[in-house]
């Protein structure tokens, strides 16, 4: 693995801060991430933001195929040159914005559920995770490197200050686990904070199925949109168009104290509330 500093200098490319480009520079860490991803030789990997190929090359050595999607056209040719030098021929490099990419179509193209990997910039992490949740029929699992704060948020449980919308959405349809920590100096350029590699395993069927999943996610968004308010007030002041009295009634019917805050409610409570709202409508 050629060092990112050397590659970028040779190709006269500077990392773009607005794209969150911090390239992994430790090949041992890259191999460890791939090992912990548990990739099998039948798997098709979707790598988000392959950058200079630190994870792409070891992933390609074990996967049937890798689809590498990066929006920065400046490094596409560089990445292809690195893959050629490494003798890798099962990687499909595509210049595209992952936020505009049809994940369902990629899954159908692959012919099997995808294993998603990526070192995600902080500014798009939430959006990518939400898109994976919606496309989970075509995504078996995801192994994502995230800023430590974001990783804590998605793995948090009820009662934690970091428990929020993403925690509930993932808790509804997946199991999450912390796989490893990656220190800031192991990137170039080095970010200001450490990163955490998180595994997300999507369930075939949620343990507490909602009658209307889209409504569930709306309820969760409303509840955490004003997280310092009580559930009654947060919901009645949201786009759900429910008055305070109705909110209180629905919460009580769901077995939820109307004066409780969203951060204390488990996933099952949100599902019960969603189902009550669906009946009310």
UniProtKB/TrEMBL annotation:
<comment type="function">
    <text>Specifically dimethylates two adjacent adenosines (A1518 and A1519) in the loop of a conserved hairpin near the 3'-end of 16S rRNA in the 30S particle. May play a critical role in biogenesis of 30S subunits.</text>
</comment>
<protein>
    <recommendedName>
        <fullName>Ribosomal RNA small subunit methyltransferase A</fullName>
        <ecNumber>2.1.1.182</ecNumber>
    </recommendedName>
</protein>
<dbReference type="Pfam" id="PF00398">
    <property type="entry name" value="RrnaAD"/>
</dbReference>
<feature type="binding site">
    <location>
        <position position="119"/>
    </location>
    <ligand>
        <name>S-adenosyl-L-methionine</name>
    </ligand>
</feature>
<feature type="binding site">
    <location>
        <position position="97"/>
    </location>
    <ligand>
        <name>S-adenosyl-L-methionine</name>
    </ligand>
</feature>
<keyword id="KW-0489">Methyltransferase</keyword>
<dbReference type="InterPro" id="IPR011530">
    <property type="entry name" value="rRNA_adenine_dimethylase"/>
</dbReference>
<keyword id="KW-0694">RNA-binding</keyword>
<dbReference type="GO" id="GO:0052908">
    <property type="term" value="F:16S rRNA (adenine(1518)-N(6)/adenine(1519)-N(6))-dimethyltransferase activity"/>
</dbReference>
<feature type="binding site">
    <location>
        <position position="22"/>
    </location>
    <ligand>
        <name>S-adenosyl-L-methionine</name>
    </ligand>
</feature>
<dbReference type="InterPro" id="IPR001737">
    <property type="entry name" value="KsgA/Erm"/>
</dbReference>
<keyword id="KW-0808">Transferase</keyword>
<dbReference type="InterPro" id="IPR020598">
    <property type="entry name" value="rRNA_Ade_methylase_Trfase_N"/>
</dbReference>
<feature type="domain" description="Ribosomal RNA adenine methylase transferase N-terminal">
    <location>
        <begin position="29"/>
        <end position="204"/>
    </location>
</feature>
<dbReference type="InterPro" id="IPR023165">
    <property type="entry name" value="rRNA_Ade_diMease-like_C"/>
</dbReference>
<dbReference type="GO" id="GO:0003723">
    <property type="term" value="F:RNA binding"/>
</dbReference>
<comment type="similarity">
    <text>Belongs to the class I-like SAM-binding methyltransferase superfamily. rRNA adenine N(6)-methyltransferase family. RsmA subfamily.</text>
</comment>
<keyword id="KW-0698">rRNA processing</keyword>
<keyword id="KW-0963">Cytoplasm</keyword>
<dbReference type="InterPro" id="IPR029063">
    <property type="entry name" value="SAM-dependent_MTases_sf"/>
</dbReference>
<feature type="binding site">
    <location>
        <position position="49"/>
    </location>
    <ligand>
        <name>S-adenosyl-L-methionine</name>
    </ligand>
</feature>
<feature type="binding site">
    <location>
        <position position="70"/>
    </location>
    <ligand>
        <name>S-adenosyl-L-methionine</name>
    </ligand>
</feature>
<keyword id="KW-0949">S-adenosyl-L-methionine</keyword>
<dbReference type="GO" id="GO:0005829">
    <property type="term" value="C:cytosol"/>
</dbReference>
<feature type="binding site">
    <location>
        <position position="24"/>
    </location>
    <ligand>
        <name>S-adenosyl-L-methionine</name>
    </ligand>
</feature>
């Amino acid at each position: 693995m050629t060092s990112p500093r050397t590659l970028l200098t040779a190709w006269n490319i500077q990392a773009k801060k607005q794209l969150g480009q911090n390239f992994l520079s430790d090949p041992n860490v890259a191999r460890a991430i791939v090992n912990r991803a548990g990739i099998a030789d039948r798997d098709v990997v979707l790598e988000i933001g392959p950058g200079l190929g630190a994870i792409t090359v070891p992933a390609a050595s074990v996967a049937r195929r890798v689809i590498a999607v990066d929006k920065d056209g400046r490094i596409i040719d560089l990445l292809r040159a690195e893959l050629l030098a490494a003798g890798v021929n099962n990687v499909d490099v595509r210049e595209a914005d992952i936020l505009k990419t049809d994940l369902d179509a990629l899954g159908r193209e692959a012919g099997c559920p995808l294993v998603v990997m990526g070192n995600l910039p902080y500014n798009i992490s939430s959006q990518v995770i939400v898109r994976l949740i919606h496309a989970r029929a075509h995504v078996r699992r995801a192994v994502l490197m995230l800023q430590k704060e974001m990783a804590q948020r998605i793995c948090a449980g009820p009662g934690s200050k970091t428990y929020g919308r993403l925690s509930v959405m993932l808790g509804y349809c997946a199991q999450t686990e912390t796989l490893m920590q990656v220190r800031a100096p192991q990137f170039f350029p080095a970010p200001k904070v450490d990163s955490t590699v998180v595994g997300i395993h999507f369930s075939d069927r949620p343990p507490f199925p909602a009658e209307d999943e889209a409504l569930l996610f709306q309820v969760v968004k409303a509840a955490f949109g004003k997280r310092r308010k009580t559930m009654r007030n947060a919901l009645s002041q949201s786009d759900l168009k429910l008055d305070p009295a109705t909110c209180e009634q629905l919460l009580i019917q769901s077995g939820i104290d109307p004066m409780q805050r969203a951060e204390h409610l488990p996933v099952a409570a949100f599902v019960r509330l969603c189902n009550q709202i669906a009946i009310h409508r």
